[in-house]
Specification:
Blueprint lengths: L7 E14 L23 H18 L7 E7 L1 H11 L8 E4 L9 E6 L5 E8 L13 E7 L5 E8 L7 H25 L4 E7 L8 H4 L3 E3 L2 H9 L7 E3 L2 E3 L2 E6 L6 E8 L6 E3 L6 E3 L3 E2 L2 E2 L9 E8 L1
Parallel strand pairs: 1-2, 7-8
Antiparallel strand pairs: 1-18, 2-4, 3-4, 5-6, 6-7, 8-12, 9-12, 10-11, 13-18, 14-15, 16-17
């Protein structure tokens, strides 16, 4: 059906864990914050501005001359950062609107979405609290937004940031399972209420990309799974995150298999430019240039690279 359409609009979707995009630490918001790492306590307005300028530079570059239609974000500290970013940096010239959660994460980090209102006409947005196991610290809300694209179809996007592996992958797995359950509840609800939904899940899963039917089910495809496997064949390639010298895809796009025939997914990949990297002195090659390396301020971009998804709309 798509090939019978006369016009096609090429769009790009981006996801990025931007590593502790905090409001300045001298703000009263951060007084007595026992969960904030010591280095972040010295976060200043000038450092925040430098970081947001750098993030803006990457977003602009990632669009190849056109701003990405949607940018999913995690590790954003709420509305204060998003408002400053979209009003006081070059991002202002891209005319983004935004939505951001206000969840209970003890570090104060949230899920957020930048979107181009001319290409993604927001219909509604909601946030879903994760019921973590007893004794586990609260985590980030799951963000869901629905918008109308140029051909009149509805695009649903989910932004998530599953709990970290702190304390060990096995010990922390129940918290990630709880967050994943929330993501799937939202996704399955969308599939039940729309005939042929176009649904894109994006997030930092804090687990490597896998195409497990037990994890995602037959109705969903993890687009990063083949890229994760390819890293073993091409060790010089980049993932979205590097841990102990090995690249991997903690950051992922997952799509439903029965989407609208008037929208199509082209391909997904990590996005990297030379200025986003630093020499990996502990291992071979390079790693993401971070804002903080441990407690040491590095002045880089993030400890994650962004991922991109090309998306075509037929009309």
């Amino acid at each position: 059906m798509a090939q019978d359409r006369v016009n096609v609009q090429h769009q790009r979707i981006m996801f990025w864990n931007v590593e502790n995009a905090f409001w300045p630490s001298d703000d009263p918001l951060h007084q007595d914050d026992e969960f904030t790492p010591e280095g972040i306590r010295h976060w200043t307005r000038s450092r925040l501005r430098q970081k947001l300028l750098q993030l803006s530079r990457v977003i602009i570059a990632a669009g190849d001359g056109k701003a990405p239609m949607i940018v999913g974000l995690v590790e954003i500290e709420g509305d204060s950062v998003m408002h400053y970013w979209t009003h006081s940096t070059p991002l202002w010239d891209l005319h983004y609107n935004y939505i951001v959660s206000d969840g209970p994460d003890v570090r104060g980090i949230q899920t957020a979405l930048l979107y181009q209102p001319t290409d993604f006409k927001l219909l509604h947005a909601d946030f879903h609290r994760v019921a973590v196991p007893e004794g586990v610290r609260p985590t980030r809300d799951v963000l869901h937004a629905a918008g109308r694209v140029v051909n009149g179809d509805t695009l649903d996007v989910i932004v998530c940031h599953l709990p970290s592996r702190m304390g060990g992958a096995k010990r922390s797995q129940p918290a990630r399972d709880a967050a994943h359950h929330t993501v799937m509840h939202v996704a399955d609800s969308i599939r039940r209420c729309r005939l042929h939904p176009t649904l894109i899940i994006m997030g930092d899963m804090n687990d490597y990309a896998r195409e497990s039917k037990a994890w995602w089910g037959r109705e969903y495809v993890n687009l990063m799974s083949p890229l994760q496997k390819a890293l073993k064949r091409h060790p010089s390639a980049y993932g979205s995150h590097k841990y102990q010298g090995e690249w991997g895809f903690l950051d992922q796009f997952v799509v439903n298999t029965a989407s609208s025939p008037s929208c199509s997914i082209a391909h997904a990949r990590a996005f990297c430019l030379p200025f986003m990297l630093a020499e990996d002195v502990s291992h071979l090659g390079h790693r993401p240039a971070r804002s903080y390396y441990g407690y040491q301020y590095e002045g880089g971009y993030s400890d994650h690279l962004p991922i991109l998804l090309d998306f075509d709309v037929y009309f």
